[in-house]
Write a structure and sequence with these properties.
It contains two helices and six strands; from the N terminus they run αββαββββ. It is of the alpha+beta class and about 120 residues long. The protein has a single domain, classed as Nuclear Transport Factor 2, Chain: A (Roll). Belongs to the cystatin family. Phytocystatin subfamily.
């Protein structure tokens, strides 16, 4: 049985982890370990999937930021990745892109969105 103290403890743990709860019930938290092999692998996967569309040819360089939405054990993770890639169809121009990768199991993932990362308006 849950007590008031255990509910407060759960809220405290979530706040300490830097996560916030969205309207859809997902926990959202920044990617603090962008150099992690799994995060870099997801970025490379997103670029490869984009290249398969045939619109242009990008060469993945690195993920440099982003955040994760966690929907629960059975619903997986959605990674919003800010990444850098070389556009080989535009004389090797280096560009920043954003990708959304949904991973529902360790080996099952799909890129749901990919595009240029627009500078923030001030």
């Amino acid at each position: 049985m849950y007590t008031m103290a255990s509910k407060h403890f759960a809220v405290l743990v979530i706040l300490l982890l830097g996560a916030t709860l969205t309207r859809g019930g997902a926990f959202v938290y920044p990617i603090s370990n962008v150099g992690d092999e799994q995060i870099q692998s997801l970025g490379s996967f997103a670029v490869d999937e984009y290249d398969k569309r045939g619109e242009s040819h990008l060469l993945f360089k690195m993920v440099f930021g982003g955040y994760v939405e966690y929907y629960g054990v059975y619903n997986g993770y959605t990674y919003h990745l800010d990444l850098m890639a070389v556009n080989c169809t535009q004389s090797g121009a280096l560009g920043n892109y954003t990708a959304v990768v949904y991973q529902y199991t360790l080996n099952q993932k799909t890129t749901t969105w990919f595009g240029e990362l627009k500078p923030k308006q001030t």
